[in-house]
Amino acid sequence: MAEILVPIAGESIKIGQFLKLASAVATGGEAKELIAAGEVTVNESVCQTRGEKIVPGDRVRVADAVFVVGEAGDEDDFFDEATADDDFDPEMWRNL
Fold first, then answer.
1. Is 33 left (phi over 0), alpha (psi -120 to 50) or beta?
2. Which DSSP string do the residues of 43-63 spell out, in sequence order?
3. Which of 13, 17, 47, 81 has the most C-beta neighbours closer than 10 Å?
4. What is the mean pLDDT of the chain?
5. What angle do CA 23, 24, 26 make, to 5 degrees?
6. Total Cβ atoms within 10 A of residue 34
7. Closest CA relative to residue 12, chosen from 53, 68, 67
8. Domain 3-76 fold
9. Could you give the CA distance from residue 67 to residue 61 in angstroms, rounded to a whole number?
10. Are the C-beta atoms of residues 57 and 7 closer than 8 Å to each other?
11. Cα torsion at 25, 29, 31, 34 (round to 10°)?
């Protein structure tokens, strides 16, 4: 079973938010139901509350999917050299 790396922005994230970020669930209510049913594990331990915090390196299992909490790196930053020095003036376009 392949593990899916899901980077997070901060030092930790609540499990309910992580499940939405990883697209394991569509809503917080769905996450709550899965957790209440005991279908979510963190590092092989059944998750008890959707407010439980997880950190980079933790492994989250939902059904047959395994997600690894990762750290957000520099690859998330986007720098476009073609438009970096284009002298764009937002004030010029404000009142159009």
1. alpha
2. TTEE---TT-EE-TT-EEEET
3. 47
4. 85
5. 65
6. 20
7. 53
8. 3.10.290
9. 6
10. no
11. -110
CB atoms within 10 A of CB 55: 12
* Spans of all domains in the chain: 3-76
- Alpha-carbon span 35 to 25, nearest angstrom: 11
As given in the structure block, the two tokens for residue 71 are 């750290």
pLDDT value, residue 74:
47
Instruction: For residue 79, give the amino acid letter.
Output: F
What predicted TM-score, i.e. pTM, was given to this entire model? 0.73
Q: Determine the Cα angle at 76 with ends 67 and 7, to 5°.
A: 15
Token pair of 53 as six digits: 């915090």
For the record, the structure tokens of 27 come out as 């809503």
Length of the chain (residues): 96
- Quick one: which of 54, 56, 17, 61 has its CA closest to 38? 61
